[in-house]
Specification:
91 residues, 40% strand, five-stranded antiparallel β-sheet, q64v53_bacfr protein fold
Length: 91
Amino acid sequence: MRIFMQSLPGSNEPPRYFQLILQQDLLGGWSLIREAGQQGTRGTLRREQFLDLEAAQAALVKARDQQLKKGFRVMFSQGAEEPGSGRSFHD
């Protein structure tokens, strides 16, 4: 699963981006990768490990919702639907 978000550009600054990637590791756990930065610059990368998919999805949804509150908009979403809701992660 992948969600790419972007803020509206400021007057003299390029837009900021926030990307969430959820992927299964080789041992059956899940990694939530968060990448953030300003377009055209090197971003920061954080990785968080989870034992099960449900916990990883909950963390992804929480991170997405936090960024939406900060004014980011979903530009691209790829992957599964939100668990139990029947809606995609970008709704």
